[in-house]
Amino acid sequence: MVVGLHWIAQAFNFQDNMPAWLGWVAVVLLSHVNYRSGQMHDMAAVTRQAHERGALVIWDLAHAAGAVPVDLNGADADYAVGCTYKYLNGGPGSPAFIWVAPRHIPDFWQPLSGWWGHQRPFDMTVAYEPAGGIRRYLCGTQPIVSLAMVECGLDVAREADIPNCAGSRWRWATCSSPWSRNAAPGIR
Ligand SMILES: Cc1ncc(COP(=O)(O)O)c(C=O)c1O
What we know:
- The structure is a single chain.
- By secondary structure, the chain is of the alpha/beta class.
- The protein is built from five helices and five strands; from the N terminus they run βαβαβββααα.
- It has helices at residues 6-11, 43-52, 144-159, 162-176, 178-183; strands at 2-4, 27-31, 56-60, 79-83, 96-100.
- Helix 2 links the parallel strand 2 and strand 3.
- It starts with a strand and ends in a 5-residue tail after the last helix.
- Bound molecules: pyridoxal-5'-phosphate.
- Residues 31, 35, 60, 62-63, 83, 96 line the site of pyridoxal-5'-phosphate (PLP).
């Protein structure tokens, strides 16, 4: 069973209190940062609790990548997806991304296979053979102009002091959001 847990995450402080019924959930899908409230989950704690209950976690980084520090390896995360057009500065039309923990790559595939993810694309073989690493999740030809834009955006993101920026932004979000003040005292 796969669940998207936005509304439940608002009711529970997940990192402290993951509900027992998660024992029958196979995959948890959560936004690291909730775009409405600014709530940010403790990725390592939530992932650990999910793993203890036998669930995998997919992190949606759409509002986190480029905005707050994200440490997928440190959190022992399983999977992540995100977009580059927001805080990574790529602008409209810039590509999405996927991250898969190296331990899952041999057994995990996505349904949109294509020549960019092929082990030997120019062999033109009849059978599809996925590339060995993360490259297997590519499918068709990349949007090169969009990638060039993201490259500029990533350069800016790399120069920015994300932990410092994130600190002031999240202090602001916590203070300014009525939802945060009234409904989620445990917000970080
Ligand atoms: C929480 C969240 N996930 C994913 C996305 C990416 O959606 P799409 O690929 O449709 O642009 C967004 C875009 O705003 C988002 O807010």
